[in-house]
Design goal:
Blueprint (H helix, E strand, L loop, with lengths): L16 H6 L5 H38 L8 H29 L11 E3 L3 E3 L1 H27 L8 H31 L9 H11 L3 H26 L3 E4 L2 E4 H6 L3 H11 L4 H30 L21 H14 L1 H5 L4 H23 L3 H15 L2 H8 L11 H23 L4
Antiparallel strand pairs: 1-2, 3-4
Helix pairs in contact: 2-3, 2-5, 2-7, 2-10, 3-4, 4-5, 5-7, 7-10, 9-10, 9-11, 9-13, 9-16, 10-11, 11-13, 13-16
Length: about 450
């Protein structure tokens, strides 16, 4: 993508003569109208997707506390209705832009749209999200048929559950790229801001930019992507609590959250805005605090209304509490690291290599920080267990061991460090990919 500062030559056509004849002339105003329209639809899509994200957590908790007594449960109705609406929106955008492309409307050409199946043209984000929504909708009747044949399975990794999860990942990534592309395009035609010698003023200008339409949408889309990652890892890994590795039983939850610096580094590296990773962590915390009581109410109230009963020993919300509390602290760490090292990263040779080094270092520290902060009681549990074992009361040990004690806490630390360092590399690569998406 060409770096344009406030002129009408953005996304200039290639030098190929035939391509020049094919592309209709356009100007900066056409690009702005196109961006405004994409962002408006994108925000509607994001809001509806947010409801479906909550509905899926609600559905998981419903299955845990009530069971799967039929397909047409309240969470299923909300989830699949919102998914259908999202799919229609995505398809509508692609169809409209395809028509505008073939009519050679200003701003709709090979440089601002992506081809699909030789006929369609549209934004990558809407296409990817639309495919994800279609996969999710297609999985619904197949999953119901599976349950009718084989009964209610307690595993998440049933074939059509996996199909659903693939659709969720596609849709989530599509939303991220949707807003990232508009952020990149808008940054390309915005005048370069005058650098302030006052650090406080510079930070304030960047924090203010966090609430621009594209940047804020990217932050929320990434937060929803994180919630879906935790949803994916939750049923068979997080809630079990252990991961068998040779003779070791490691705390699986700690390993799952060790890679959470990935989206934070991607946001900071792609946007270049101070505070964006912290804001993402705060949004995840707000989502957790708001979702838990709504899920509690959604299960308890509707169970009574529909004459159902809760399963034994399931009177507490379990699913939503897999979301980490302290991600915003890691976000602050990422933001400060990128801010302090900005001049060093951008000066001299091989700036990408320098940025990669910073990403790996801050990700390693952040992953270990989450490991130490988010579930410190695992170590306390192990101490308590040893004290009870010394008492020799086998009955007490057997009863508490089933739900209280966790596996060896500190044995997981080397693996956490390795995963967190790897997360820095993945997060940096993710940031680079977001930086260069512009359609």
């Amino acid at each position: 993508m060409e770096n344009i500062q406030g002129n009408s030559a953005a996304f200039a056509p290639t030098l190929d003569v035939q391509a020049e004849k094919r592309v209709a002339p356009y100007n900066l105003q056409a690009l702005k109208r196109q961006s405004n329209y994409r962002l408006a639809v994108g925000w509607v899509l994001l809001a509806i997707w947010g409801v479906s994200v909550w509905a899926l957590d609600w559905d998981a908790d419903w299955h845990t506390r009530v069971g799967r007594d039929g397909f047409w449960t309240p969470p299923h109705l909300v989830f699949y209705t919102t998914i259908a609406i999202c799919g229609i929106l995505c398809a509508g955008v692609v169809i409209v832009e395809t028509l505008l492309f073939h009519r050679r409307t200003a701003g709709y050409n090979e440089q601002t749209t992506t081809p699909l199946l030789f006929v369609f043209h549209g934004p990558v984000g809407f296409m990817l999200s639309g495919f994800g929504m279609a996969v999710m909708l297609a999985s619904a009747p197949l999953d119901d048929y599976w349950h009718r044949i084989y009964g209610v399975d307690v595993k998440v990794w049933a074939p059509f559950h996996v199909m659903l999860l693939i659709g969720i990942i596609m849709a989530s990534l599509g939303l991220v790229y949707l807003f990232a592309s508009e952020m990149v395009r808008r940054n390309s035609w915005r005048p370069v801001p005058t650098a302030s010698k006052n650090l406080v003023s510079q930070v304030w200008l960047e924090v203010r930019d966090l609430f621009r339409s594209a940047t804020l949408g990217l932050t929320l889309a990434m937060v929803f992507f994180v919630t879906r990652y935790l949803f994916l890892m939750g049923p068979d890994t997080v809630t079990r609590g252990t991961l068998q590795l040779g003779d070791l039983q490691l705390p699986a939850y700690s390993l799952v959250i060790a890679v959470l610096p990935i989206p934070l580094i991607a946001l900071a590296g792609a946007s270049g805005r101070f505070g964006i990773a912290t804001l993402a962590g705060l949004f995840l915390l707000i989502y957790r605090l708001l979702s838990a009581p709504l899920i509690q109410w959604g299960v308890d109230y509707l169970v009574v209304e529909q004459g159902r009963t809760l399963r034994n020993n399931t009177n507490e919300v379990s699913w939503i509490w897999i979301y980490p509390i302290f991600l915003f602290l890691v976000g602050l760490l990422v933001d400060l690291a990128f801010l302090v090292t900005r001049r060093w990263r951008n000066s001299g040779a091989r700036p990408l290599a320098r940025e990669l080094g910073i990403a790996v270092a801050v990700s390693t520290i952040g992953g270990v920080l989450l490991f130490l902060l988010d579930k410190p009681w695992e170590h306390i549990n192990n101490i308590t267990r040893r004290l009870i074992q010394e008492s020799g009361n086998a009955t007490v040990i057997a009863s508490l061991d089933s739900f209280l004690f966790k596996p060896d806490y500190w044995a997981a630390l080397p693996l956490v460090i390795g995963l967190a360092a790897l997360a820095g590399i993945v997060g940096w690569a993710f940031a680079v990919s977001l930086r260069y998406t512009d359609r």
